């Protein structure tokens, strides 16, 4: 592919450089296939597995199968559990070992003196036997504890009524709940996964290509012919950036499309999340992620140009990627409201806006523009810095 001379326009020279880089990327078919499959499937498939896990645990709690030891000691309790659609089973002799091995979730043991203690006006004793360290058993444990609390309240109210005491005497406070969450905001885990993987795609989509297009070409000695042509350093940097940005945008598009398609098959109502990720959310995601799609490849190009070797460039890029991917997780676990200045910070500002979109809130134009400001300035600074590195004679030998 021939490089235009100085008489051609700057746009045409940048276009030829970008086309050359894209062709080089497409020649590495194995890397491209891995990138496409990872972008299209990694996040959506993980989210689908998580949703199916939550749905399975919810079904497990609803279809509670409960072995009871000493069921004859508290027939009223057993009858209450059966009315709540609990399947009563005979416990195996080695129930403790089965609980430890995960074959049983929980066993209910009713004390032999249960009826005698109740007759004396003392509380009856029951034992719950389980292994709380097994996550799969937790839905059954929580469901049984909820049912026992309900039976305890029902029985206590009945005993008060027999003594001529109203139930309100023992419950002086009536709690009424008003849940202001929207259908979108009710699925916190689903919201986090979609927002996180959207950011993840924008950060890593062009990472490998950005490192290879400078540090890799330097080691393959294919960078020298480009530097000796009539293309200006800024045009060369902009052409390489354009190719990586195109790849990054394609990665983000595939990732978001994967979410859009897979969410149509996910059992969201089964886990209580009437959530929609439609075309409107898709467009808003692109608006929010646009500055990162441009910023991250530029920064990666700069790190690749500064590195002394391809391995050093990979290490520097990996460190930046780790910091950028950690920021949304830190925000998720913050125990207080996020400060207003966080909307100016790259990655953090985008994550906050993505969360708003997924909660069904309006996208604030002022904060959207704020999230564009710093990435735009950093993109310009990094691009000019790469061009200045290309202008040095030491560009082929790496820069200190």
Q: What's the arrangement of secondary structure elements?
A:
Layout: H1 10-27, H2 29-62, E1 65-69, H3 75-83, E2 87-89, H4 95-101, E3 106-110, H5 114-119, E4 126-130, H6 138-162, H7 167-170, H8 188-204, H9 207-219, H10 223-227, H11 233-262, H12 279-306, H13 310-332, H14 348-358, H15 365-391
Parallel strand pairs: 1-2, 1-3
Antiparallel strand pairs: 3-4
Helix pairs in contact: 1-11, 2-6, 2-8, 2-11, 8-11, 8-12, 8-13, 8-14, 9-11, 9-12, 9-13, 11-12, 11-15, 12-13, 12-14, 12-15
Describe the biggest sheet?
Answer: 4 strands, mixed
Tally of strands: 4
As for the number of domains, it is 2
Radius of gyration: 30 Å
The count of helical stretches stands at: 15
> What ranges have pLDDT less than 50 throughout 5 or more consecutive residues?
none
- Principal-axis shape equals elongated
Indicate the structural class.
mainly alpha
Termini separation comes to: 32 Å
Sequence of secondary-structure elements: HHEHEHEHEHHHHHHHHHH
Look at the structure and give the mean pLDDT.
Answer: 77
> In percent, how much strand structure appears in the residues?
under 5%
């Amino acid at each position: 592919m021939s490089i235009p001379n100085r008489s051609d326009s700057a746009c045409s020279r940048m276009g030829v450089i970008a086309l050359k880089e894209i062709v080089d990327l497409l020649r590495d078919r194995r890397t491209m296939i891995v990138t496409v499959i990872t972008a299209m499937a990694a996040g959506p498939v993980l989210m689908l597995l998580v949703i199916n896990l939550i749905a399975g645990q919810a079904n497990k709690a609803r279809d509670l199968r409960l072995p009871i030891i000493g069921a004859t000691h508290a027939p009223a309790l057993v009858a209450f559990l059966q009315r709540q659609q609990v399947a009563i089973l005979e416990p195996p002799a080695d129930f403790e070992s089965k609980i430890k091995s995960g074959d049983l979730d929980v066993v209910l043991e009713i004390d032999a003196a249960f009826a005698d203690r109740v007759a004396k006006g003392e509380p009856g004793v029951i034992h719950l036997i389980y292994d709380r360290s097994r996550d799969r058993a937790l839905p059954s444990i929580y469901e049984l504890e909820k049912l026992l609390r309900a039976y305890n309240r029902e029985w206590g109210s009945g005993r008060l009524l027999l003594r001529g005491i109203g139930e309100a005497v023992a419950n002086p406070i009536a709690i009424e709940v008003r849940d202001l969450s929207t259908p979108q905001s009710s699925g916190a885990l689903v919201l986090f996964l979609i927002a996180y993987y959207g950011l993840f795609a924008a950060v890593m989509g062009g990472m490998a290509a950005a490192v290879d297009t400078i540090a890799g070409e330097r080691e393959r000695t294919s960078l020298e012919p480009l530097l000796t042509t009539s293309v200006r350093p800024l045009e060369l940097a902009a052409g390489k950036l354009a190719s990586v940005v195109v790849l990054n945008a394609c990665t983000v598009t595939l990732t978001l499309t994967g979410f859009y398609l897979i969410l149509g098959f996910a059992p969201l109502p089964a886990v209580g999340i009437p959530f929609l990720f439609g075309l409107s959310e898709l467009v808003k995601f692109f608006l929010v992620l646009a500055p990162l799609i441009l910023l991250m490849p530029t920064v990666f190009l700069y790190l690749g140009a500064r590195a002394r070797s391809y391995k050093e460039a990979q290490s520097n890029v990996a460190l930046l990627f780790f910091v950028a991917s950690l920021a949304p997780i830190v925000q998720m676990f913050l125990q207080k409201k996020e400060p207003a200045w966080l909307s100016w910070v790259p990655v953090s500002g985008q994550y906050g806006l993505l969360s708003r979109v997924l909660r069904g809130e309006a996208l604030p134009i002022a904060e959207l523009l704020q999230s564009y400001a710093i990435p735009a300035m950093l993109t310009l600074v990094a691009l000019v810095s790469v061009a200045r590195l290309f202008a040095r004679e030491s560009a082929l030998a790496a820069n200190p």
